[in-house]
Amino acid sequence: MLIRFNVKNFLSFSTRDDSQAQEFSMIAGKVRNKKNHLYDDGKLKLLKFAAVYGANASGKSNLIKAIDFMKNTILTGLPKGHTEQYCKVDPINRDKASYFELELLLNDRYYAYGFEVILNKSQFVAEWLVALTPDGNEKIVFTREIRTGVFDAGEIFKDKQFKEKLNLYADDIKNDESALLLSVMNQYKKNLYSVHQEALLFKNIYEWFLLCLDINYPDSPISNYSYMANSANIDEVCRMISAFGTGITSYQVVPVPVEKIVSKLPKFIVEDISDKLEQATSKNRISLSEPPKPEDATDRKFSFIMRSKEDFFILESDQDGQLIGKTIQFSHGEKNVLFNLNEESDGTIRILDLIEVLINTTANKVYLIDELDRCLHPSLSYKFVETFLQFAAQRNIQLIVTTHESRLMDFDLLRRDEIWFANKDKSGQSDIYSLEEYNSRFDQKIDKAYLEGRYRGVPIFSTVFPIEAV
Fold it and tell me: Helix (H, G, I), strand (E, B), or coil: what is residue 44?
């Protein structure tokens, strides 16, 4: 689970003090009510939900982008366009290091992982992984000072052979300003993990970013609808869809010609699927546009799910190695008339996406959704958050959203520490801060106070041309 995230010198996040980064925290405040909204292991209390408010261009989406940047850098290297993503409000930031650190709860232990990078030069300058304790003590797992080539493996590892290997891996990239050790330790190291149990820490941290941190933007689908393909989920999914007032009463997985699916795919995706199918069969390549020959029909298993804004398709092989295509269609009311995904409203499609968050039972999953309320009626946004909090009471799952929907600022729904703000000052720098800092009374109309500008983070309008009453 996410504990805390710190960032500086990235997009609109600069810092007025070289030692201070902007901090977003899921650590619970002093609020005493709604304890079912918390994860509590007896040592640390974490929020399971947070909503970030702010005017357009205030920096709330940049918070999501900063966490996403850190994730992508670990998994695939520095993203395209990174050299221009330092905070440009002050020219001096161009040559300053950008700072990213994330604290997480993993297997009942607490860790802080981070790195510093000069974005304009694509140079990593420092990297660290630290084991944390609730009393504030720290145990170094490793630290790298890349410019000086200094590496410290700390005293946490008891396996001397593994520690020797770790030092060798670190020495290989001692002065390599383009590589992160966490990434290197997850490249072709399967044998290392099977022999040395302590090495699993690197694998587990890496896979948390890969599998548990789910980041979503307004124009991209949240879900690939794989939850709908599971027939065991149909009754529960239909109940949820109906509860959100979409008008959908049921859905069916129906066949669709393989040729129709292939015709909608770019050539490189067709080739990729064909390669995967070849690997799955370990035999001759099978064309996606033609059925396999009888002699190739051995024990084959292949499944590929495709989701766009308007379509949903499944390609899979049957027991005979034949490719079959499927899609999902929806029925409304009692009449058995089926509708395709592209015939549903934007709001319905948004709800179908969000249900993925409710139905997913993966432990320690962290969802970040930019513009939760996109295409949703205000009542639907409220209902979704209310439903999520009910589900989250029984699961270790977190949801962090950005939103403009002020109706969520309701102390009947949320705790004070679950409400955050992003605000951009006249210089163009963004601050992020919690409502907890304002110590608002529980009987106060928070949404009204917010819209009046009491907590900042709202648009300030100016008149371009004088308007005179006629």
Answer: coil
